[in-house]
């Protein structure tokens, strides 16, 4: 049972997932700080309040905090979109290179077989 657990825990996918979770948490802190300390104060200046997220409330409902959470989400979603787009572009280039190499080998073999057949 320990051997099975060890195989499961140290497979590439599990380790990659663990790294992704830790990186995601760290990235979330960066985005939250960006929104809280830079974007929201700028929005507050536009609307005339210093602390936009905390001062916008209606009957105890802090819709300013909700707006801040939406901005957090949009930034994180956009950053992930860019990351996935770049990663897929890199993966596609690697696959094209491998495909070209395989095609070259196959075409060379076909050429050699045709030469042998004609001689």
Question: Mind explaining what this structure looks like?
Answer:
This protein has helices at 2-9, 12-47, 52-55, 63-118. The N and C termini lie far apart (62 Å). The mean pLDDT is 79. By secondary structure, the chain is mostly helical. The protein contains four helices and no strands. It has a single domain (2-118), classed as Non-ribosomal Peptide Synthetase Peptidyl Carrier Protein, Chain A, CATH 1.10.1200.
Task: Please write out the topology.
Elements: H1 2-9, H2 12-47, H3 52-55, H4 63-118
Helix pairs in contact: 2-4
Subunit structure: Homopentamer.
Membrane topology: Multi-pass membrane protein
Subcellular location: Cell membrane; Membrane
CATH arch. level architecture = Orthogonal Bundle
- Global structural class: mainly alpha
Number of separate structural domains: 1
**CATH fold-level label:** Non-ribosomal Peptide Synthetase Peptidyl Carrier Protein, Chain A
- Rounded to the nearest angstrom, the distance between the terminal CA atoms is 62 Å
Percent of residues in helices comes to over 70%
E-strand count: 0
Low-confidence stretches: none
Keywords: Cell membrane, Ion channel, Ion transport, Membrane, Transmembrane, Transmembrane helix, Transport
Organism: Staphylococcus hsinchuensis
Function: Channel that opens in response to stretch forces in the membrane lipid bilayer. May participate in the regulation of osmotic pressure changes within the cell.
InterPro entries: MS_channel, MSC/AndL, MscL_channel
